[in-house]
Write a structure and sequence with these properties.
Elements: E1 2-10, E2 15-21, H1 23-28, E3 34-38, E4 46-54, E5 59-65, H2 69-75, E6 82-83, E7 85-90, E8 102-108, H3 111-124, E9 129-135, H4 144-150, E10 153-158, E11 165-166, H5 169-177, E12 183-189, H6 192-204, E13 209-212, E14 228-231, E15 234-237, H7 238-241, E16 244-246, H8 252-259, H9 263-279
Parallel strand pairs: 8-9, 8-12, 9-10, 10-11, 12-13
Antiparallel strand pairs: 1-2, 1-6, 2-5, 3-4, 3-7, 4-5, 13-16, 14-15
Helix pairs in contact: 3-4, 5-6
């Protein structure tokens, strides 16, 4: 059992942070890697990228958006409760090295949780790191303080202009690409349309770019084949070959189509779970 030592709701309650006791995972984990979590014996296996790790405390931090049955089950776990399974670290860690120029880290929505540990890793390697994070509105923005600490400079954007720059993260990204300072690498995670546009812009400037495709993973062992993606002319599996790939080689049309393949079934499952929780009087507001 893996105890939840801290639980916090963010983004108007739609996003939950769990700090979980998992000393062996925390000791071995590297930026970009993920874990598989299961709430109980009947729960689904859910792969989530670690937002942070603390080997000294023996804890890992995961952040998830509450959208389906399994994340609602996670949400209903309180501080002091425990996950049945936490398996990891899994996936290939981010290739972090010292670059001669600037490293830009671009995160949107819950993708900010994915890029946090990556930004921290690049900064620890001696890079100058600028992080660009965004959300639809200020109330949905997450991890601003943690991203500020993990970066040399933080740029914040909101679609509605309620906080920070009024506009998209890609607007700020383009300003840096057109600026005088050399950009050596860009790493991005977040909504698929955002990552696709990041790749399009950086491709025009021929800047190497990594995109995290963690959202498509299901089984996370390479067995189910549901997370296969086309990278150039090759078929790769996000869970064992990724979760990060060259953003300029990703078949974005295919990826976005596969990302929504099970949405109807997921919606039905979530609705049935909500109905069950209401019947037994244990639903969380």
């Amino acid at each position: 059992m893996y105890k939840i030592v801290q639980r916090r709701q963010m983004a108007q309650g739609t996003v939950v942070l769990n700090e979980i006791e998992a000393p062996l995972v925390a000791r071995k984990a590297r930026p970009g890697q993920f874990v598989i979590l299961r709430a109980d014996e009947t729960g689904e296996r859910i792969p989530l990228t670690m937002a942070a790790t603390d080997p000294e405390k023996g804890v890992i931090t995961i952040i998830y958006q509450v959208v389906g049955k399994s994340t609602k089950l996670f949400r209903d776990l309180e501080e002091g409760d425990a996950f049945l399974d936490v398996v990891g670290p899994l996936g290939r860690p981010t290739d972090i090295k010292k670059h001669p120029g600037l490293v830009l880290v671009v995160g949107g929505g819950t993708g900010v949780a994915v890029v946090h540990n990556i930004a921290k890793g690049f900064k620890a390697a001696g890079n100058r790191v600028v992080s660009i994070i965004g959300a639809r509105t200020r109330d949905l923005l997450i991890l601003e303080d943690m991203m500020k600490e993990a970066s040399d400079k933080l740029e914040v954007c909101t679609d509605d202009g309620s906080y920070g720059h009024h506009g998209f993260v890609t607007n700020i990204l383009k300003n840096y690409l057109e600026g005088g300072e050399k950009v050596s690498e860009v790493v991005t995670a977040g909504p698929a349309p955002m990552m696709r546009f990041v790749a399009k812009i950086t491709g025009e400037y021929q800047v190497p770019t990594l995109a995290s495709l963690n959202a498509i993973m299901i089984d996370a062992t390479g067995m189910c084949g549901c997370c296969r993606v086309s990278i150039g002319r090759e078929t790769r599996f996000t869970c064992v070959d990724g979760p990060e790939f060259d953003a300029h080689q990703i078949n974005w049309d295919e990826f976005m189509q596969r990302l929504t393949a099970y949405r109807p079934q997921e919606q039905i499952s979530a609705e049935q779970y909500d109905a069950h929780r209401c019947q037994i009087g244990r639903g969380r507001a």
